[in-house]
Amino acid sequence: MWEYSDKVLDHFLHPRNVGEVENPDGEALIGNMACGDALKLTFKLDENKKIKEAKFKTFGCASAIAAASALTEMIKGMDVEDAAKLTNQDIADYLGGLPKEKMHCSVMGREALEKAIAQYKGVPVAVAEGKIICECFGVTEPEIERVVRENNLTTIEEVTDYTKAGGGCGGCHDAIQEIIDRVRAEPKPAARPKLTNVQKIRMIEETIEREIRPSLRQDGGDIELIDVVGDRVMVATRGACASCLVAHVTLKDFVEAKLRELVWPDLQVQEVSP
């Protein structure tokens, strides 16, 4: 018997957002008929390009249902770029954890979201094509590499928990171990030093003054920093920016992008009324 958190049980017994969104902006259907899991995800955006509705249909176990239900709740209110940054671990954490043998359900949710966003953008989905390592479940080398890298996996058993690879005949165990060894031998990027809140605010102010405000003023606009709460940067638009119909695009594609590049990669800009 699996040990499920209260939140997993709640989302399994009372799943949110079951069904399909009418005329969705993004949709994806993923599944592996060999292992019986399948998931369809659909979402629709509002006028500000934020996800206002997300629904799912799934064929799978309690963890698959709970993970899909949680995912639809998590992405509502997000813009597409932020939703694209969600990881399978984020889904598991939202649920208060999943049994290690069921982590592949969170991976399936992340894959469905990734594919739906790619479909919305009209770009080719990053399909994990490549040599099939696990013939029993059709798992490819790039799929295994990705879960090992993103989740810091160290054993064949963990790879099986996250992908089901190696859970059949076992003939692929040596190949899985070779992938683990190769990925773990990769040089790790240097950790970026953590900023104190005072340092973060100072750098945000300096970046706005030096890199952002001059460009906005060229077109008669301006921006004012209102507050910083965690990684949320609350600003108010001024001048021509305050009445611009595409101000939200400027905030996202220019202001937020600049702050993420020069201050901290997780910053999110939010427009507020002071």
Helix content range: 40-55%
Q: Quote the average pLDDT.
A: 89
Largest sheet: 3 strands, antiparallel
Instruction: Compute the number of strand runs.
Output: 8
Low-confidence segments:
none
The coarse silhouette is: globular
CATH class of the largest domain reads: Alpha Beta
CATH structural architecture of the largest domain:
Alpha-Beta Complex
Structural class: alpha+beta
- Tally of DSSP helical segments: 11
Strand order of the largest sheet: 1-2-3
Tally of distinct domains: 3
SSE string, helices as H and strands as E: HEEEHHHHEEHHHHEEHHE
Question: How large a portion of the residues is in β-strands, by DSSP E?
Answer: 15-25%
Termini separation comes to 53 Å
CA-atom Rg in angstroms: 21 Å
CATH topology of the largest domain: Sufe protein. Chain: A
